[in-house]
Amino acid sequence: MEKIRELKKNYEDVQIPEELDFVVRKAINTHKRKLKKRSKKELKWASGVAAAVIILTVAVNTNSSIAYAMSEVPVVGKLVKVLMVREYMIKEDTYNAEVKVPAVEGLENQGLQNSLNEKYLAENEKLYAEFSKDIEDLKAAGGGHLGVNSGYVIKTDTDKILSIGRYVVNTVGSSSTTFKYDTVDKQNQILIVLPSLFKDDSYIDVISENIKAQMRQQMKEDTQKFYWVEEGDISPFEKIKADQSFYISSNHKLVISFDKYEVAPGYMGVIEFEVPTEALSNVLVSNEYIK
Amino acid sequence: MKKNKMYGVLEDFIIQNKESHYRLAYSYTKNKEDALDIVQESILKALNSVDSLANAEHIKTWFYRILVNTSLDVLRKKGKLSYVEDIVLEMNSEEKVDIYENFDLQNAMDNLPHHYRLIISFRYFEDLKLEEIAAILGENLNTVKTQLYAGLKRLRIEMEV
Fold it and tell me: Which CATH number does the domain housing residue A252 bear?
């Protein structure tokens, strides 16, 4: 019993950090905000999907040449859009899944459109299959909590640029959030990848250094912010991946995105850095996309 | 109970017990940032799945269950925990008890398979009943008892469970 008392004392002597109270309240508030947002969002989705269905139905029913005519319209940019084509749902006591699959429509470059749409479908089918299997495993092991929520956001939609972000949030039983982006040049009908924007590989270092400086600056200005950027952190951020997640904002800026846990503790969530165009001026191929 | 009321109960519970929850998370991670992360994630998960909490009397075990799952998850993600957990390996290998010349109690505790450590923490530091621990871990009572004995034996502690 003496030994247990000793261990218990050590256990209780663990210092409670000052941030604990903040972290707890922030989590509660985050949840409240999310509830509000979600109820609005769901409404929007519902009407968006209904509208898309009506348009397609009408077009098909009235005149089949409409569909053909649509692809002939010269200003393609305006017609390119993103629709939700499929939705998977699981709703059981402790298991929840909501998976929304986007698809791009209206690109003249059918090859590009198909490859994007096939990718989105495959990603989500895989996610759904994995989740179903996790549920089976967990049930076999005696039950538990699991949730996954996947969907998409349109980050940018201008005459020229379309940036679609797809996210996966494991809400229960796991805790990751990942974001992946595709950015399409609607006028030239091409998919923009990060390396294609730059003259050579030196962009990796240029962007990384800029982001590190931003991280340090933010931490200095706000003690609640924390990034793994200093030596001595468990796995400090060194440089971005050559194909790091990114999108181009509607005001033509490059935005680099990091998944949860990628460069900071989980409470920081998914993180984005806008890289000032001046910092990139020496490495950009042109100012066509980024200004 | 109405959902809103359950939210209120859960919020109060979370705020009142934050230190216990932090200690338990810390006993897993031995690291402040990760422990805070686990506490935060667990709260979000709990609030998101308040529907699955049918009876406010079960709030303690229900929340600990989420906390344990989240801890495992964070550790796994950080590569600090292998997928085949220690306990599985233990069960499949012949029993052996390491004997140390200089027996450092806390050190021995820290080196226990985390499952044993968890059961000991719940039983003696958080004063939970064995039945409650079994409910949290989703195991039957006898398994928990056996594991508690095994953990104590490793620490060379003789006592009535």
Answer: 3.90.640.20
